Amino acid sequence: MSADIAAEPEAYRDIRTANDRYAEAFDKGGLALPPRRRFAILTCMDARLDPAKYAGLSEGDAHVIRNAGGRASDDAIRSLVISHKLLGTEAFFVIHHTNCGMELFTDATIGDLLADNLDTATFDGTVWSNPQHGGGSPAGRDIDWLTIPEQSHAVTSDVRRIRAHPLVPTRIPIFGFVYDVATGRLNENAAASEAGRPTPPLHLG
Ligand code: ZN
């Protein structure tokens, strides 16, 4: 732990200071575990996106699942299934965004960069390159990085993947949006939301 603190003293101090203030004014200790507004958002980890602000959330309101790209990975689906099955959410929102970093590289690009060196690469607007060389690992070549060749296709494909999952009830609506980082606006992707349209449960007998 002390090594990490030494490496990032500013981030460490900032978080401790901010949390001291947060905890001093904290009055949310009585919240129930299940999300009060009964929905879950799957969105990108991009630092410019603040789901609490763009979707108007407070503590206790909703589940927010984040990863690189806001992709419907196996782990994201694991969280969504828990969100509904054990914690009662009744609608899912898949929210990708414009200018996503996942549009800027391919599996081959990151696999090659990591095979060469693990330190942060640089991007000149077209090409990624390593400032240092050596000490990399080929393990990155075995990962599906879920990069995004085309944003509107990706959000639709993610909604479709969740919709088709055998553990996601067909009556749960799944909406697809692309957040515009230039305007702060959530633009619905009609094809994605159509793919996520719920179907009523079968009435047997
Ligand atoms: Zn992103």
Q: Can you walk me through this structure?
A:
- The structure is a single chain.
- The protein is of the alpha/beta class.
- It has 2 domains: 1-30, no CATH class; 31-105 and 145-195, Beta-carbonic Anhydrase, Chain A (3-Layer(aba) Sandwich).
- Helix content is 33%, strand content 14%.
- It has helices at 2-7, 9-24, 51-54, 74-85, 107-116, 151-164, 190-195; strands spanning 40-44, 63-67, 92-97, 122-123, 128-129, 174-179, 186-188.
- The strands form 2 sheets. The protein has a 5-stranded mixed β-sheet.
- Strand 4 (122-123) and strand 5 form a beta hairpin.
- It is globular and about 60 Å long.
- It starts with a helix and ends in a 10-residue tail after the last helix.
- The structure holds zinc ion.
- Zinc ion (ZN) binds at residues 44, 46, 69, 97, 100-102.
Outline type: globular
The CATH class label of the largest domain is: Alpha Beta
Report the mean per-residue pLDDT as an integer.
95
Strand order of the largest sheet: 2-1-3-6-7
CATH superfamily of the largest domain: Carbonic anhydrase
Based on CA atoms alone, the radius of gyration comes out at: 20 Å
List the helices and strands and how they pair.
Layout: H1 2-7, H2 9-24, E1 40-44, H3 51-54, E2 63-67, H4 74-85, E3 92-97, H5 107-116, E4 122-123, E5 128-129, H6 151-164, E6 174-179, E7 186-188, H7 190-195
Parallel strand pairs: 1-2, 1-3, 3-6
Antiparallel strand pairs: 4-5, 6-7
Bound molecules: zinc ion.
The site of zinc ion has 7 residues, from loops.
